[in-house]
TrEMBL record:
It comes from the Bacteria. SUPFAM superfamilies: Autotransporter (SSF103515). InterPro entries: Autotransporte_beta, Autotransporte_beta_dom_sf. Residues 1-201 form the Autotransporter domain. This is Autotransporter domain-containing protein. It comes from Actinobacillus equuli subsp. equuli. Transmembrane segments: none annotated. Pfam families: Autotransporter (PF03797).
Amino acid sequence: MNTAVRYDADKWWVGAALQLSDNDYKTNRQIQLDSAKRSQKGETSGAVISAGVFGGYEWKFDQSQVALLADLTNSHGKVTDFGETEANAMRLSFAEQQIRSVRSGVGTEYRYQFTDWQPYVNARWVKEWRDSPAELVTTFNNSKFKVGLAQADKSWVNVQAGLDWKAKSSPWHFQLAVQRDLGRRDNFSGTSFHTHVGYQF
């Protein structure tokens, strides 16, 4: 869930955004020692809250618009501690995991005005300034130890293409977009789709 408020001047805009995400996680692993086979499962949940500011400045050329973009987002969250369900010697349990992130983005955008429609494309360079904790406390067979966690990429390029609709006589507007991260090695670089509904006052 996310919400944003934005102020538009003649050639520039600024805004603030707030996002809350709630996630469920499941683990499932198989262990084989000689002829013995064991399976373990686990479930937990997590939540992340993000707050950010954004802005831009645009130049208009007939029906075309070119803009510079900038944003800054701070995120804080956690994954709740949990243990695997089967009570045997292969059982693992994990302490609470903290999530920290401070990201900035700068980029450019092109839009074309066609009656009530505005197709657009933009590209942003995203920089991660803060790491989440690099280790996680784990318990195995009544022994505690720390395991290293994979760290997120430090920078990548985000590209987005979409379509905005807004009638001049209506305060409502609608957006449909697709985006993808380029040059990112972790598991969050897939293509994603999103929609947005806004009200202008």
